[in-house]
Structure formats: C-alpha cells, structure tokens
Design brief:
The chain is built from five helices and nine strands. Helix 2 runs parallel beside helix 4 and helix 3 packs across helix 4. It is globular, with a radius of gyration of 18 Å. The chain has about 230 residues and is an alpha/beta fold. It has a single domain, classed as 3-Layer(aba) Sandwich (Rossmann fold), CATH 3.40.50.
Length: about 230
C-alpha cells in the first residue's frame, strides 16, 4: 500500500531525517508524534499536495496524487458551505464520483450503498436531518460515511477524535470498529488520544526527534506522554 525509500518530508527545509517504510494493504496504522514532527505533512505528501524533499514514495504502486480517487481524506479542520436544506444523506450521495464532470444521477444501487454506510457508521437516526443542525460528533460520522461512498482503498484521518465529548468520541470509535470489521481498506489515523483507539490498530508510525519508526506495538512509544497513554 505504501512504500517509502529514503524519504525526507518537509517544506522549504526538511522536518524529518531519511526513513524507509513498507505498509501492506488493509493495515490500520496509528501515526504518533509531537506537533510539527511531520504527521500531517506525511498525509499531505501521500495525497500529492506536497512534494517530498527527497527520496521515493509510492502509493498503491504509483506516484502520489495519481490514484487519489482511491484515497479518502478527512482533515482535522473542515469548513464547508451548505444550504440549510442539505441533509447528511444528500451530502454523502453528492460525493459519489465527485471528481467526475456532469450531473449526478443517484441510482437505486447507490442509494442502497449510502443507506448501508449510514447504518455502518451509526448515523441512521439523523441522516435525513439538515447537516448544519447536527452536532460535531454526528457530522463526523456523516463525514466518515461520505469518505467511504467511493469505496476507497486507503482512508486518512487527521485527529478525528479532537473536539468530541467522551460520548461522541466513543460512538466514533465504534463506527471505526464496524468499518474495520466489514470494509477492506487501509487506514492511517493521527490522534493525540491514541490510547482510546490503539487496541483496534495493527501498528504505529512514530515521528520523533530520533527519526521515523515503525512499531508493531504501542509500548514502543509509551515514553511520549503526549499520546495519552
């Protein structure tokens, strides 16, 4: 799914040393590190929005940006302007093949898939409500269903648990559990609340001052108190 060879991340100046990684398909990976260590930069580089300083990065066997229709990304902060009548369901439907031109036609099969995803993320009771009236936790579950509508092979989540109260956070984690159980896709998740999701992940990428390390267990990063463990 992901191959990094002597990769260096950064903007005008590098922010990581060279590192090598190989992540298999359908792996669920936690990305951990202090602010500014390169976590979000890594996601932007995967998407092709930012070029690496040096080295090689392959995403699903291609250069970054070439297969973004197979990648869904939910950023930490998201502002969208919607009409007051736009429901969560219609937001999900409108994202189907959103990279294509032309008038969207919602087939019976597409509506059925949207309904299945809404049930999967636990948003059935409010999916038909106006999106702008939903709580932060409800919106994040709609975003999660939206991210899955095009059947991605890789899902990128940047701090999805931030700003959620404990109840909403638990519901979101339960939605991720359901996705892990029934969907075949890789997941990269950045979180400062990693202890709450760690048991559902396969491994971790640790961005630290000593480099970028792949860890199969959470114990290897427990020395960093910022991960909340």
């Amino acid at each position: 799914m992901i191959i990094c060879k002597n990769l260096v991340l950064g903007y005008d100046e590098p922010i990581t040393p060279k590192f090598n990684l190989m992540i298999d398909d359908n792996q669920w990976i936690g990305i951990i590190g202090k602010n500014g260590a390169g976590k979000s930069t890594f996601m932007k580089t995967i998407l092709g929005n930012l070029a690496p300083n040096s080295g090689e990065l392959q995403i699903l066997g291609n250069q970054p940006g070439k297969l973004n229709h197979l990648i869904s990304y939910i950023p930490q902060e998201r502002e969208i302007n919607l009409s007051d009548k736009m429901s969560g369901l219609n937001l999900i439907l409108s994202s189907y093949r959103g990279q294509c031109w032309g008038l969207a036609l919602y087939s019976k099969q597409l509506k059925q898939r949207a309904a299945e995803l809404i049930e999967l993320v636990g948003a059935t009771t409010y999916a038909h409500q106006a999106f702008n009236t939903l709580s932060g936790g409800q919106k994040k579950r709609i975003y999660l269903a939206q991210a899955l509508i095009n059947q991605p092979r890789l899902l990128l989540l940047d701090e999805p648990l931030a700003d959620l109260d404990p109840h909403a956070k638990q519901h979101f984690i339960e939605a991720l559990q359901q996705i892990h159980r029934y969907q075949q896709l890789g997941l990269f998740i950045i979180s400062h609340d990693m202890h709450e999701i760690a048991s559902h992940l396969d491994a971790f990428i640790h961005f630290s001052g000593n480099g970028v390390h792949f860890c199969e267990t959470i114990e290897c990063v427990k020395e960093d108190t910022y991960v909340g463990i």
